[in-house]
Amino acid sequence: MAEILTQPVTAVKRIPSSLLAIMFTTTIFLSATLLFSVQPMFTKLILPLLGGASNVWNTAMVFFQAMLLGGYVYAHLSSRYLSLRVQIGLHVAITVIGLTFLPLAIGSVAVPESGTPTLWLLGLFAATVGAPFFALSANAPLLQKWFSLTDHADAKDPYFLYSASNAASLLILCAYPILIEPALRLGEQTSVWTFGYVGLIILIGATGLLTLTRLKPNLDTANIKAASLQTLSFRRILFWLMVSFIPSSLMLGVTSHMTSNIASVPMLWIVPLALYLLTFVIVFARRPMLRAAQLRPLIPWVVLITLFVMFLPVLSALTIIAICLTSFLIIALYCHACLVESRPDTSRLTLFYIVMSLGGVMGGVFNALAAPLLFVTTFEYPLVLFLAAFILPAHIGLMRPAQGGVFKSLGLLLVAIIAAFVLPALGWLPRMSGIVIALIVFAATLPLNIRRAQSILILATLVITAVFQPGADEDTIHRDRSFYATMSVEAKMTPLGPMHSFIHGDTVHNFQLRAPEFRTRPASYYAPGGSFDRAISAVRKPGEGMSVALIGLGAGALSCYEQSGDRWTYFEIDPAVISMARNPDLFSFLDDCAPSADIRVGDARQTLASLANGSQDMIIIDAFSSGSIPAHLVTREAMTLYRSKLSNDGLIFFHTSNRMMDVTSVVVRVAEDAGLASRFIETEFSGQAASYSTESNGLLIGPDSVLQRATAGDREWTRWIPSETVGVWTDDYSAIISAIRAKMLRNGRSEPIRSTD
């Protein structure tokens, strides 16, 4: 390649303009396809290591955004200081180096037992997918820069190629869960990806050679530099950062909200990212369909409505998610339209992409790295929504060099945020006092920059955000946030005495009546007579101890079902949950019922392997994050692991209560695939028991003969007929949409056990 590049340009036959544009578009299209298919594919490889936590995706996004920034910086520096020939040769070489890391695989790695494996995860990404991703990330700005040097009619405005890049990214993200994931196993996906990467190397080399044949007249190919650089003000760069930061942060905020309430699977991660890319496709098109001025009046209203449905939930969770996604789409469209309308000429093209990428990285770092340290709730999402309502409608001020009112108002806004949110969160100021101070400070910003009608909307968002921020309830006695989730404990008085509730994400998972006569009585799903009680009683043999592996510790309520001679092992991925369960001031189940409980930290798919094969009489799967289920615990491979640990007459109990998905049908399909029978139970409570119990359902799974003996005489056990829309989940495939659709259609059902069954 180096020898070819040193030959005179005239040695290569000149090609037509149409072929030149097709070659550039094809190369960028393939590059973007590889770039955005590797994100869900590689992240899915890592899921079983970290319990399916949604923060895996947020951390992955930070890594990928940082690598994009690195690729953009490399593209900027190489196009600024290297000759075109050297640029082409260097970029082909860097892309070839990435080939040595393929096919993608993570091998055997040990997950740290600390509660925050973020840095470890970033290192794993860097060591495995970093080099090829870096090479891919530079293609969009670098190839656009090369195209701008040609004599093509569109060379003066090559930004349309960025729209093509994002169109390819959007297409592959939509195709991944619908076409790629169901059709190809992960190993096959990585092989196809490797072949595509090799093809891209060939295309990059060919595109570089074609560029040399179509350079603008009078360009020195040995030292191509911009003759004159467009002057950019600090305000303009700050504006680019702002309108890049906000949609990037909101994308991860919406993702966390969705995955903590439905399921932590790539399909749901892809939706906000796909919308994010769609906005680039729309606004970077040659003829944009929308302009910033058309969207600007909607921003405060969109934010206000979103905050209202988040903090005052009167709609279903799916409707709230739809509203959040719609508001994110509108805000992102507005931000990216502002970017396009303020873009520089081609002399500053690569710098523009660097600043835009830096803003995206800042949004990712804020959500995935800074927010878990700053907030004990997922407060970053409503906070950035509020910032969008305040800043975006007034953004024109940032583009006016003579106006200083915007900076004064932004400074006062920062003071208001600290008073309303930060100081109360640290316990240094009463919450209502902070809100009053914030309102006074906010009033001082009104004459500086914002119209009166807009001020009323922003004032409303400030009040709603501050008053109804997550965790602001005065009954909250404990709040914590880890890599895996947010959690809190609330204390309330009931007719049966004081009660502590364990809230994981936004779902109440358990509670304990604190009066001495009730302390050792499990409550909520785990109450006597409920599905867990029935399942444990079905497996227990009179007069014999039993070995039980429990996946998901929670508040520790199930420890009160331990009896003398039992051997229970608890598996919990989140050290923060263990600390809460061991604190008798919060919950005393473990302290009262199993003070020497064997609790093992880590994802169950990893730690359960340490148990001896055939050693367990019962395995209980009760691992939920907020309202979602870790998909990798309900797969064919997971079931194989569970079976290997069971004794000959051992059984598995799955807790399948879920408000959005038909988890029961999913588990039945996996059980049938393994050749196992299942029995379904759904329990309700009445009278006094209803005040401390929660309706629950679950499946008892095992060999048919064992299952029949265990459930004989208890008519509460029924047969579950799974929904036809649900198939067998595997580590390579989990059809989340089918499970949600089955829940909506309610076409999975229970039937009584007939005597002939």
* Structural category: alpha/beta
Helix content: 40-55%
**Sheet of most strands:** 7 strands, mixed
The general outline is globular
Strand adjacency order, main sheet = 7-6-5-8-9-11-10
The number of helices is 26
- Rg (C-alpha, Å): 29 Å
Extended strand count? 13
Strand content: 5-15%
List the domain count as a whole number: 3
Structure report:
The chain crosses the membrane at residues 19-36, 56-77, 89-111, 117-138, 159-180, 192-212, 233-254, 266-285, 297-314, 320-339, 351-375, 381-399, 406-426, 432-449, 456-472. This is Spermidine synthase. InterPro entries: SAM-dependent_MTases_sf. Keywords: Membrane, Polyamine biosynthesis, Transmembrane, Transmembrane helix. By secondary structure, the protein is α/β, with parallel strands linked by helices. It has three domains: 1-225, Growth Hormone, Chain: A (Up-down Bundle); 232-472, no CATH class; 526-752, Vaccinia Virus protein VP39 (Rossmann fold, 3-Layer(aba) Sandwich), CATH 3.40.50.150. It is 54% helix and 11% strand. The strands form three sheets. A seven-stranded mixed beta sheet has the order 7-6-5-8-9-11-10, with helices on both faces. Helix 3 (55-81) runs antiparallel to helix 14 (349-374). The radius of gyration is 29 Å and the shape is globular. The model is unreliable at 1-13, 221-227 and 393-404 (pLDDT under 50).
Q: What's the gist of this structure?
A:
The protein is α/β, with parallel strands linked by helices. 54% of the residues lie in helices and 11% in strands.
Write the layout of secondary structure elements.
Blueprint: H1 2-6, H2 17-46, H3 55-81, H4 84-99, H5 118-137, H6 139-148, H7 160-183, H8 186-213, H9 234-259, H10 266-283, H11 292-295, H12 299-311, H13 317-341, H14 349-374, H15 380-391, H16 405-426, H17 431-449, H18 452-467, E1 476-481, E2 486-494, E3 497-504, E4 507-513, H19 531-539, E5 547-551, E6 567-572, H20 575-581, H21 589-593, E7 598-601, H22 604-607, E8 616-621, H23 636-645, E9 646-655, H24 663-673, E10 677-683, E11 696-702, H25 704-711, E12 718-721, H26 736-745, E13 749-752
Parallel strand pairs: 5-6, 5-8, 6-7, 8-9
Antiparallel strand pairs: 1-2, 2-3, 3-4, 9-11, 10-11, 12-13
Helix pairs in contact: 2-5, 2-6, 2-7, 2-8, 2-10, 3-5, 3-6, 3-14, 4-5, 4-8, 7-10, 9-10, 9-13, 9-14, 9-15, 10-13, 12-13, 12-15, 12-18, 15-18, 16-17, 17-18
